[in-house]
Amino acid sequence: MEKGYQVHGIKRKSSLFNTQRIDHIYQDPHEIHLNFHLHYGDLTDSSNIIRIIQEVQPDEIYNLGAMSHVKVSFDMPEYAANADGIGTLRILEAVRLLGLTQKTKIYQASTSELFGLVQEIPQTEKTPFYPRSPYGVAKLFAYWTIVNYREAYNMFAANGILFNHESPRRGETFVTRKITRAATLMVYGLQKKVFLGNLDAKRDWGHAKDYVEAMWKMLQLDNPDDFVIATGHTHSIRDFCSKTFMKLGIEIEFSGNGIDEKGIVKSIDSKVLNNYGIDKPAINIGDVVIEIDPAYFRPTEVDLLIGNPVKAKKILNWVPKYNLEMLINEMVDSDMEIARIEKLTRK
Fold it and tell me: What are phi and psi of 111, to 5 degrees?
């Protein structure tokens, strides 16, 4: 909207209010919300998608809609295929049938999960795909459908193969936000510990702000193409835990192996917590704050993902502004404020 766009979004019908992440736009004092419109819709409903695209006549479509939780996709494989895979096909067909192929540019949110059981390190646009989840397989269908429609109908359709990107708005069931949320709740005494799955899994984490800029840059090109968007650095879940707690002045020591591994508080720097207004944290040296729950293991694990964004840097002139420490700092600061308010409301 700051770029002068009229923005149309799609939300699913729910019995609960589910627009918390965008409510601030409606309250904007500069009335920027007048350029923002929401439509009820669902990627599993062809007629609905066709109607919305026909009404809006969009110049650009950014398809980030998906059942995007990898672990849950094993429990809902058919829905993941329908929304994530065929949902992309529905958008492409709507644009084609409505005669908008020369007007509408399409960005498809592809994913590093396409690489799954990685065939080379790091991963590039030419690395063979080997998805290891229903989510990854559905996204692979969407990826090749984008390529097919681009070549068959001369459509401007681009895949962004985005590696993990996070922010304070990340859903609480995703591991990064689960960790930052838990750590901040613990220092306020609102949670005792956090249960995680495979601590050895390594991911290439970036900030959503950087990655959204890359998405936009892809649709400003003269010709559509596919790009890996990544930081080029990888860290384990264990590393993410350590850095998160260290941001709060809490040093974690890991002991044990496999499902018996635990994260234990080794030291506490009270000065750091004092900066957050906490005189006495509800957490002590020797406390077990991280444990393993096998329920969070995937049937087929993806152990290592690390992208090489050299093509994006060269063609899109894209360079990420955030590193992992900056990302964690922002997430922890945000969750500390949320935890502080929760503590006050529970008194």
Answer: -150, 150
